[in-house]
Amino acid sequence: MNYFPDEVLEHIFDFVGSHKDRNSVSQVCKLWYRIESYSRQKVFVGNCYAIGPERVAERFSGLKSITLKGKPHFADFNLVPPDWGGFVYPWIEAFARSRVGLEELRLKRMVVSDESLELLSRSFPNFKSLVLVSCEGFTTDGLAAVAAYCRQLKELDLQENDVEDHRGHWLSCFPESSTSLVSLNFACLKGDINLPALERLVARSPNLKSLRLSRAVPLDVLQRILIRAPQLLDLGVGSYLHDPDSENYNKLVTAIQKCKSVRSLSGFLDVAPHCLSAFHIICPNLTSLNLSYAPGIYDNELIKLLRHCHKLQRLWILDCIGDKGLEVVASTCKDLEELRVFPSDPYVGQAAVTEEGLVAISRGCQKLNSILYFCQQMTNAALITVAKNCPNFVRFRLCILDPTKPDAVTQQPLDEGFGAIVQACKDLKRLSLSGLLTDQVFLYIGMYAEQLEMLSIAFAGDSDKGMQYVLKGCKKLRKLEIRDSPFGNAALLMDVAKYETMRSLWMSSCEVTLGGCKALAKRMPGLNVEIINENDQMEFVGGCDDDRQKVEKMYLYRTLAGQRRDAPEFVWTL
Amino acid sequence: MEGGVAYEQGLNLKATELTLGLPGTGETEGQGGVRNNNKRPMPTSETNEEESQALKAADRGSRAQIVGWPPIRSYRKNSLQEKKDSEGEASGMYVKVSMDGAPYLRKIDLKVYRGYPELLKALEAMFKFAAGVYSEREGYKGSEYVPTYEDKDGDWMLVGDVPWDMFMSSCKRLRIMKGSEARGLGCGV
């Protein structure tokens, strides 16, 4: 390959798309490293503390797009205290200084301040795309800056963020000359929206393909928007309250009929029952349907709608659909690949679906490869049947609302059921367990889950052996997160070098002690071993007392950046 | 979920019951609902397998509300909770009430009543009639008028057959039928 001029290699590398493959390419030799580095445009940083922004900017001089993830996954469930970290500001500032030609920024679980949004909007003249998922720390003022100063903005996609709403003027900050919008998603905003400004914005955005509205957008505005934008591929309905006999409703039906391109439907954040029939006409075209934020839809309405959705590939829904409803899905949605069933009443601890719904789906939907299923109960027999029917799972996440519930019929642990899943699904990359589980399930996981990259464990296992089976067997493991399980120092310290092959390890309410964590940190300087010490539960004393101090929350990750300097008081890096 | 059979040992309904006490109070087994720093004894290799199972079951069985469980994003949890709150407080549960022969309809808030006796008394007072005595077998005896309601599926049912909570969530409107028409309505379901 040394005989080819650099441009040829560069051209060949253009065909290498995925991050994994490009990383492999860059390790072949120094020449390839160099060429790959300056030609790479999209960079993925799975842990924002694994490397510093200056180093990224230096290596990838052609950087246009970056994806950053901040807080550990369990932060989504309130297990990480606020102010833990994950700030995007230093990244934006470093990129601005290094004159990176940033066009796209995708963030997940990060703290985004209004200052960072303002700096972003002023520093990168070609900036086109901002995607924020599960982030916090900003207000609609920050959005106003993005709208006003990102002249080439194509995409503003806000998914499930906690945004402080200073009322709706940010939409009017898009200049009249701005006509480039392709994707706008503000469904997670809670405050009022400047409706005329929204309508005008849609009217002057001929390339708009994806629009997801918030609850503040009422039906009559929706109808006018749809008339203006019949080219939409992806629609998120905001408020859907109306009187079925009204003129508005009839106008809406007409408008929807014109939207022949819609393939993805979501929202219905406020919805009155008995009124979804207006959408039946576009259901046969849908490949993606997300009704998981619409608890107002009764199961029979839901079922009537789903009966029209023959082409559905992705379905996110609430458990009020029931096992019977899932049977309808199984017989109607033969192309289904991804299913997520969320609990509609998480506080009461009762779910409306059981193992029967899951089995029905597995029988009817042969292409299913990804599932997230919150349910009331499960059985080994059901899981074994599911494994036989659907050996193609790549992601399998099961959450029984009572986390230590045994097999509902035999009262046995669910080891055999999950064992069947990992044995049958050779491509399984992500697994979340729940229910009564012993060390045996981890023996199976270590033996069979060869492609497993992410494992989530809660209230499971009997002894260190459980965790040891996993660390020994799962060669491709990247992320391991464990809560409330009896794994201690013996498991933690069994193979310390393993953690440098992984992105991160989270352990909370387990049996690891301060002494164990210190020992690990000492042997592995390439890891940051962080202890989260809320409420001053622990004292940083030295000596043998360390072995009696259980650590409530530990998060460790490999890093090239050393100890982070923005850690709050309650986070100790050992 | 109506589909599953209740396994009394397995369901541990008491653990998920909403009470006013602190999680864990009133439970004889285990260590209370909210997970604290309490250390489970580490089973050694000699520990009897069943013993450690029982220990774990007791320890975990009495959880009412666990931090961070079920694992759904706070954003989703909050938005469901907000919806429940706003439905609960703001509008009440108003349904139309019609009476055969009356010139116009009335509206009542079902949430105001704690059960069927109160509701019937209110209806009787509003429309100046007497409903008679309800029995499961014979419906309302001794009256010219019979209270009925339209449910989610569009069917007309006799008021009083189903538990009050189920009635509240399925009742779309009420109609006080004249006795002669009502005589086909037995036990609704």
State the low-pLDDT regions of chain B, or none.
Answer: 1-10, 24-63
Shape of chain A: globular
Largest beta sheet: strand ordering of chain B: 2-1-7-5-6
Please write the string of helix (H) and strand (E) elements of chain B: HHHHEEHEEEEHEH
Radius of gyration of chain A: 25 Å
Query: What distance lies between the first and last C-alpha atoms of chain B, to the nearest angstrom?
Result: 18 Å
**Which structural category do the helix and sheet elements of chain B fall into?**
alpha+beta
Helical content band of chain B? 25-40%
Helix content percent band of chain A: 25-40%
For the biggest sheet of chain A, the summary is: 21 strands, mixed
Subunit structure (chain B): Homodimers and heterodimers.
Main location (chain B): nucleus
Subcellular location (chain B): Nucleus
Keywords (chain B): Auxin signaling pathway, Nucleus, Repressor, Transcription, Transcription regulation
List the helices and strands and how they pair.
The complex is a heterodimer of chains A (574) and B (189).
Chain A lengths: L5 H8 L5 H8 L3 H10 L2 E4 L7 H7 L5 E5 L19 H9 L6 E5 L5 H10 L5 E5 L2 E4 H10 L5 E5 L2 E3 L18 E3 L9 H9 L6 E3 L6 H10 L5 E7 L6 H12 L5 E8 L16 E3 L8 H8 L7 E5 L3 H11 L5 E5 L12 H10 L5 E6 L4 H10 L5 E6 L14 H10 L5 E3 L6 H10 L5 E5 L5 H10 L5 E5 L5 H4 L11 E5 L5 H10 L3 E6 L20 E6 L12 E3 L1
Parallel strand pairs in A: 1-2, 2-3, 3-4, 4-6, 5-7, 6-8, 8-9, 9-10, 10-11, 11-12, 12-13, 13-14, 14-15, 15-16, 16-17, 17-18, 18-19, 19-20
Antiparallel strand pairs in A: 20-22, 21-22, 21-23
Chain B lengths: L7 H4 L1 H4 L32 H13 L12 H18 L2 E6 L6 E4 L6 H12 L5 E3 L3 E3 L3 E6 L5 E3 L5 H7 L2 E6 H4 L7
Parallel strand pairs in B: 1-7
Antiparallel strand pairs in B: 1-2, 3-4, 5-6, 5-7
